[in-house]
Amino acid sequence: MRITCPICGERDRREFYYQGAAVALDRPAPDAGPQAWDDYVHLRDNPAGRTCDLWFHEMGCGAWIVVERDTVTHEVYSTELAEKAAR
Amino acid sequence: MRYSALRVIKEGLTGNRGWQPVWRDPEPKAEYDIIIIGGGGHGLATAYYLAKEHGVTNVAVLEKGYLGGGNVGRNTTLVRANYFLPGNSEFYSHSLKLWEGMEHDLNYNAMHSQRGLINLFHSDAQRDAFVRRGNAMINQGDDAILLDRDGVRKMVPYLDFDNTRFPIYGGLYHPRGGTARHDAVAWGYARGADQRGVDLIQQCEVTGIDIEGGVVKGVQTTRGAIRAKKVGIVVAGRSGQVAAMAGMRLPIESHVLQAFVTEGLKPCIDHVVSFGMGHFYISQSDKGGLVFGGDLDFYASYAARGNLPMVEHVMEAGMTLMPMIGKARVLRSWGGIMDMTPDGSPIIDKTDTEGLFIDCGWCYGGFKAVPASGFAFAHLMATGRPHDTAEKFRLDRFRTGVSIMDEEGTGAQHNLH
């Protein structure tokens, strides 16, 4: 699998650290309550198919990237800097 | 039909014409007391123990493919009870005892071979950790022997003991650990369940779970609707999709774990050798193939095949540990879909829907758990109470923080196990 870093271009998967589902973009408010925080920290949709997850370009520019890809075929549809996706 | 040496001789002398199919191929009935979704090792063992231990025989196992076609036929066949934390310790200890009586119980040859497992260590700190783990195993009533460097060398002389990065200081030896023929375990439980009246229904995919007023009523399948008083979900890597049919989200991410086998060689590796620092472990099958594996590919995936960076990593780790295997040719590699929980420990529990139960989260260690998981899940579904050996495997432990079992000590977070 190769991932296109929006800054560095297409790179080998080994340059990236995998953080997990891109839920970090929807962080609940501090007082949202235990259920909302459990949903956020532990529970996952875990889809077989299209998903969005967060990768860190550890061996490159250090950018956090939202990668939209397919968990069955490993096709990468799009990538975007997390700072833009979060806006 | 019972299997015996006498029977094998008799059939051999009469042209093997007397063998019968080992299980029926029934049409689904309109209603069952209990439906098990998933005809893998855990699901088949659950059905077997429901019938044997609890006398519940109006049971169907629904399998979308063929029996034992998932992870139970795709793993590296290790059987061990070397866990450290309360919760896991008693469960895997119980599982190993069930393994030791399984072949007799099922009248089926699962080729369970207690050839011994050696976990290597490479520093003083790691030795301390293994001493502690060994003591925990002994306290649990299982066996553990600390080997020094010479002790390891005596048993497995072919390792690179003076590797610059990972010199071998010794190993924790678990004599009752070993391997088993993975397919035979699924087939043995399937045969035992079928003989006790359980319907094993293959090519039957569950497409929906019927819930009315918070109570489970049955399932929708590709072979029609089937009613049931209780439904158990035992679908490993596919847990997320099946749970979603009941409106649930689980603390699970599915990842791929790879395994490899070489061409058949003459006997050379007599034990199971585990090289934790390289995430590498190896044994030799009865056919002679070296069976080995590594770590997860480490991103969410349902592709039942692996990526090349991990292939390279596993081969490097193997060559680091035992350079002699460099001349063996790898025959096949494959991947299984692991249901990873945040703390790396499993879940056997009720759900918020009455009558709906779930057994999942086996991470990369489900094979050795097959007997005890089936035993405990059958107990839970039949009696409504968790079995003593599995009472800490709660679905809500991440929300409550109670009895999180993080064997690796890395933290109960999704991308760390």
Mean pLDDT across the residues of chain B is 96
- Per CATH, what is the topology of chain A? Folate-binding fold
Distance between the termini of chain A: 27 Å
CATH 2nd-level architecture of chain A: 2-Layer Sandwich
Quaternary status? heterodimer
- Helix/strand order of chain A: EEEHEEEH
Question: Roughly what fraction of the amino acids of chain B lie in strands?
Answer: 25-35%
Strand content of chain A: 35-45%
Helix segment tally of chain A: 2
Question: Strand arrangement, largest sheet of chain A?
Answer: 3-4-5-6
Shape of chain B: globular
How does the helix and strand content of chain A classify structurally? mainly beta
InterPro entries (chain A): SoxD (IPR006279), SoxD_sf (IPR038561)
Protein name (chain A): Sarcosine oxidase subunit delta
Organism (chain A): Parasulfitobacter algicola
Pfam families (chain B): DAO
Overview of the structural elements:
Chain B: Belongs to the SoxB family. Chain B: Residues 34-78 form the Rhodanese domain. Chain B: It is an enzyme of class 1 (oxidoreductase). Chain B: Its cofactor is FAD; FMN. Chain B: Keywords: Cytoplasm, FAD, Flavoprotein, FMN, Nucleotide-binding, Oxidoreductase. The complex is a heterodimer of chains A (87) and B (417). Chain A is mainly β. Chain A has a single domain, classed as Folate-binding superfamily (Folate-binding fold, 2-Layer Sandwich). In chain A, 14% of the residues lie in helices and 38% in strands. In chain A, the strands form two sheets. A four-stranded antiparallel β-sheet of chain A has the order 3-4-5-6. Chain A is globular. Chain A starts with a strand and ends with a helix. Chain B is of the alpha/beta class and 417 residues long. Chain B is 28% helix and 26% strand. Chain B is built from ten helices and 18 strands. Chain B has helices at 5-13, 41-54, 88-106, 124-139, 149-155, 182-195, 239-244, 308-321, 370-383, 397-400; strands at 31-37, 59-62, 78-79, 117-121, 145-148, 170-174, 178-179, 199-201, 206-212, 215-221, 224-233, 253-264, 272-275, 280-284, 289-300, 330-340, 347-350, 356-360. In chain B, helix 2 (41-54) packs parallel to helix 6, helix 2 crosses helix 9 (370-383) and helix 3 packs across helix 9. The longest helix of chain B is centred in the N-terminal third of the chain and has 19 residues, at 88-106. The relative contact order of chain B is 0.18. The mean pLDDT of chain B is 96. Chain A binds chain B through residues 1, 12-14, 18-21, 34-35, 38-39, 41-48, 51, 53, 71-74, and chain B through 238-241, 244, 249-254, 298-303, 307, 309, 342, 398-399, 413-415.
